[in-house]
Amino acid sequence: QVQLVESGGGSVHPGGSLRLSCAASGFPFSRYVMSWFRRAPGRKRVLVANVIPSNTTTYLLDSVKGRFTAFRDNDQNTLYQQMNNLRPEDTAVYYCTRDTTTWGQGTQVTVSS
Known about the structure:
Blueprint: E1 3-7, E2 10-12, E3 18-25, E4 34-39, E5 46-51, E6 57-60, E7 68-73, E8 78-83, E9 92-98, E10 102-103, E11 107-111
Parallel strand pairs: 2-11
Antiparallel strand pairs: 1-3, 3-8, 4-5, 4-9, 5-6, 7-8, 9-10, 9-11
């Protein structure tokens, strides 16, 4: 059974940091492109980052460049997103996905003062 489970979300002040994790199981993780999306309140889901099997980030949303880093550990079957200098506009539910066909349940990130 293919499964993605996100964790690491929470509430932080502007300028704070969080690290999201996405634990994958049920498929050969190291062979797949993995992605982070986010959905802000009242908005559609948008792509934040793509990480190919070699652990290269091939896409990063412009508004998070210089603040977010997406990476993976193929030995641990886990995708990560390190988020620094968080802003209120980063408030969203963050999802990881394999090929946009399998999704995790999401993890809430709230940035407010």
